[in-house]
Here is the input.
Amino acid sequence: MDVISLDSGVGKCAIRAAGVLRQGGVIVYPTDTLYGLGADALSDDALAKVYAIKGRDPQKPIHCIVADLEMAAQYAEVNDVARKLAEKFLPGPLTMILKKNKEVLNGIARSIDTIGIRIPNNEFCLELARTFGKPFTTTSANIAGEATGGSIDAIEEQLGASAAGIDLWVDAGVLPESAPSTVVNLVSGFPSVLRQGAIPSADILASMGMA
Here is the structure.
């Protein structure tokens, strides 16, 4: 179990984690909600490892973390509604489902027309996105359908033999209990809440003058 403590420095951890991602590896890392499983979001092989570790149905999409809206626009059509929600809620626990740019053909965007974008309110996540230079996956570090442990020890115990597929664990200690991010489909230009999480649906609609 290769572990690096976030106490050793955000920049140091980001450099180490980015190196693992570039080699097609998988990391466990802290976000502003839960611990996540990270891999190169545009690599079919790396993504397959994440699905295997979680035991997740490959037909269920996985989303990605980017550093900012400028990075997001390299991979997705960031419409006016997305920009308005971003101004209100990002960085924060919001996942925006957007129409992907036509050049994005692999990884999480393979065989679908959309891409889920996340910009967490978490210094490590943002630094890793900048250091890696492209999106990495954001999906809870758990067996599909199970609760996510609040510490890397709890996650390792739950994953069992699947934990061997993780190349680096970024340890931020025990994370406080939190709901996952709220997922909003913005492809049509009209916000449709697919999953209510840390941000209530009513707050999303109110920000658009729809409450």
